[in-house]
């Protein structure tokens, strides 16, 4: 399952962050990074997926 999330990080970084962490601060930061320039959004999504244990964030 982890490999699927990592593959989707290339295409839709905000969607992966929303699935893994919910619509909180991480999603907002990732959406902003993706809209400004795609590469930082993808890097942030990778970091969230690799750091996340699957639980949703409160923030």
TrEMBL record:
Transmembrane segments: 28-50
NADP recorded as keyword: no
Compartmental location: Membrane
InterPro entries per UniProt: PMP3
Entry keyword annotation includes Membrane: yes
Keywords, comma-separated and alphabetical: Membrane, Transmembrane, Transmembrane helix
Family under the similarity heading: Belongs to the UPF0057 (PMP3) family.
Protein's name in the database: YqaE/Pmp3 family membrane protein
